[in-house]
Amino acid sequence: MKQLADTLSLVLEKAPCWAEARFHRRQSQSLQVQKGRVKQAKSSVTAGIGIRCLVDGAWGFSSTSNLSSTSIEQALKRAFECARSLSQVKKATVKTLPHTTLARGEFVLKGYEELQQMSLEEKMNVVVKAEAQTRGRSSLIQSSTCGYNEQFEDKIVVTTDGAKAISRLCRNEMRLSAIAASQGEMSEGQHTVGRTGAWNCLFTEHSIDQMGEEAAKLAVDLLSAPKIPGGLATLILSPAMVGLLSHEAIGHTVEADFVLSGSVAQGKLGQRVASHLVTLCDAGFVEGHPFSGGSLLVDDEGVPTQNTMIIKNGILESYLHNRESAAAFGVSPTGNARAWLYQDEPLIRMRNTFVLPGNQTLQEIIESTEDGYLVDCPLGGQADATGEFMFGAQKVMRIEKGKITKLFRGATISGQAFEVLSSVDAVSKEFLLDLGAGYCGKGQPAKVDAGGPYIRCKAMIGGVQE
Amino acid sequence: MDALKKERRQLEEAGARLISEACKAGADSAEVCGSFGHRNKITLEKQDYHLASSDEGYQLGLRVLRGGRQGFTSTNSLDPKELKEVALRAVEIAGFSPENPFFTIQSNSPQKAQPNLNLWDSALAQLSLQTQKDWVEWMRKEFLKDNRIRLNEGSLEVSKSLSLLVNSKGTHHVESETSCVWSLMGMASDKDLLTSFDYFSHLSRKALGIGDTIISTTAQFRESLLKNLKTGEARSYRGLVIFSPRAVLDILLDSLIYHLNGRVLLDDSGRWKLEDKDKLLINSAITLVDTPWLTDRFSCGLFDREGTPTEESELFSEGKLKTFLLDNYSAKGLHQTSNGHAVGGASSIPTVGSHSLCLKGGNKPLLTLLKEADPSSQGVLWVNRYSGQTDPVTGDFSGIAKGGEWWVDGEFKYCVKETLISGNVFECLGKNLLDLSLETQVVDSSGESPSAVIDGISVTTV
């Protein structure tokens, strides 16, 4: 890696403009067993170098999977030509990239060697057993699936203005799902976990047995659960749901490229956008939670990642930046530039996005809720430039007079992000980053994590009407 | 095609090397799916040009069988040393994977009657960067003709590519294609009003006439965004809703296809069984065909991910189930024959999917249906785009009606925000499907559908 980093530095010395060279090797392995049959056992390697040039304020990009100096030089030439050509038509030119402390040296997150030393065969045995156990937990379980993915990431980022960072990390995910069936009704329960780190990091909150048990139980319980009535309601969101809210509803609208395009967060810096109980961050590395699924120490522009406070006590404090948007706003980059593969350009992406914990216990919040719902087990989610969001929840429990009384089938939760955050009136002590198995989509995928405490707020439930 | 001669040779040599190394290492049979792609792409962002890029690369996926066990590896390298390691790794994975009797690598399939597809256009393959820049400028200018439009991102990509499918049992297919794909994502704003974002993408495989199509598709998209600036309120109700072609494809047909998937059928995880063929299972208005041969669609080709010749499949005819989507895996398990529905890229294991779905339209124009849907002039929701969750197992769906429109007595009144819909796919495709429009629309160069009038939908607003 050091030798390749030196080669990249040497090639960039010939660049007639600002340039960035990024080597990225990803080795990924996937296993999937369904109903006792192996559906997937695969190993993939993708490696190459992406070169980005900035010429007269315009960007050019090219990539190569050939790691020879000649091939890298050719990619540099192509990227330069692309940028030069675009600079002839680009209207507003990119300002000079801001001077900032760029990363130099090696940046390694724990678990890489440990996870690599554990054989894929051992992992396969665990997956096969977990699937069989989940399927055997009830005669109502018709089918179950266990899937495991891992990614080993090796990167080098070198820029003509001083970055020279070598980084290494590994990520993994485990997914267990069960489908229950009875009298023509079907339902699904699932439990997922995703981490940055070694194998054991996956099971710090729940053992694999517990994951399977919960997935099977949820599938069976949902079989007889009624559909939820639609309308505005008081909701207690679980940490995973708060993670979805933080990521989808707030995080995307404060990505600076989206802000510049006119998102609802435009012009709102310094304004109250949430209840004073809400402090929301996006961090490359979360103290006390080193294995969060979106962890990274250096971004793909060679900027060290930070803990960026987006909302502090309800006031919008910062957007999320790459070097280009930081220049446009006259601030420092926040280390949010990420690319999925070597042939992708870095975009502004989140990492670990979360609300900070509060002072009440979950029990206290439930007991003080007269009429509402406890919402858990997130499915996917999406947000809009307007801040309107939706996310799916698999498990919704009715709360009446301070007690959980009834389980409903899953539903969609929706609202306008800042309005929902402004309605927050309770925040729990309990805190979890619980969305590490998730991927964010923005043209390219990105591995992210999100979470927080339990919070109580008001939002819409997309249920049934009489 | 001459331009890719060298790349074809390299791809075929790498494929042959992978198969040879895998068999030497103990594989009973091996299959390589390979691809080469060259693309020039110009992206737009924040009303302006953003980035120009030029890339090319290979991808190779190796699937091996050894004693009924399967291993799969992939790489983007052509280096012989790396290819040998990839082959050894695939055989090693097969060595410890549990046996599955349905895995198969097929012998060369007999030829079927297929059309003469031409996916290659020399003019597009040799397109200059200047012409590509001109096209992007036309798209940008047309979109921004109205200063209330916000261009979040857009791109125009011209590519030429090769696909290879070769196995140790004599299958050998190579297809080449060119394409130009443009897309836009944006919203409209006026004073304090900001609409939901929307997007579209379009594919063309020939250079001739692209300029006009870029302008017409962009103008159409711009006008649909501007329409969203007129906003008003919906009401909460349970009843009739009109689904746009996009909503029909996203909400209804995606879930329907899950239950037609041969692998779901094999696992007994779906609603229907083989013996349900020719039974009336959904509304008799539904005639659904999956076709792999439409050159103006993304998924188009003469062979599938396993090298099986593709075929046009009638899935439902007037509500009666006609066939399932089968690859070799599901076909073997079900004692059937693959109908060419193995899908996936070179770096992924083949799975089952559809090519391009075409739902047949009804007899009445959409405007007539919109009028008939609101006899009491209370207003009815037209769902343009859907952002939500659909559980393919149960068919339950719940989400936001994006860019939803409120129609009263057959007339557009305004667009609605924060409006949720929920229902069940199988009720929508069964008793609750009241009608389909005469007009059909191809959505994002993939599926084609009419609009649908559906009863029993819960609409929830603030």
Describe this structure in words.
The complex is a heterodimer of chains A (466) and B (462). Chain A is 23% helix and 40% strand. Chain A is built from 10 helices and 24 strands. In chain A, the strands form 5 sheets. In chain A, strands 1, 2, 3, 4, 5, 6 and 7 form a 7-stranded mixed sheet that branches. Chain A has 466 residues and is of the alpha+beta class. Chain A has helices at 2-12, 69-87, 112-117, 120-135, 208-223, 239-251, 256-260, 323-329, 362-367, 417-422; strands spanning 18-34, 37-55, 58-64, 104-108, 141-159, 164-182, 185-196, 231-237, 280-283, 307-312, 315-316, 337-338, 347-348, 352-355, 371-383, 388-400, 403-408, 411-416, 426-427, 432-433, 439-442, 444-447, 449-452, 455-461. Chain B has 462 residues and is of the alpha+beta class. Chain B has 2 domains: 2-226, PmbA/TldD fold; 230-291 and 310-321 and 352-462, no CATH class. Helix content of chain B is 24%, strand content 38%. Chain B is built from 10 helices and 23 strands. In chain B, strands 8, 9, 16, 17, 18, 19, 20, 21, 22 and 23 form a 10-stranded mixed sheet that branches. The longest helix of chain B is centred in the N-terminal third of the chain and has 20 residues, at 5-24. The radius of gyration of chain B is 24 Å and the shape is globular. Chain B starts with a helix and ends with a strand. At the A-B interface, strand 2, strand 3, helix 2, helix 4 and strand 7 of A face strand 2, strand 3, helix 2, helix 4 and strand 4 of B.
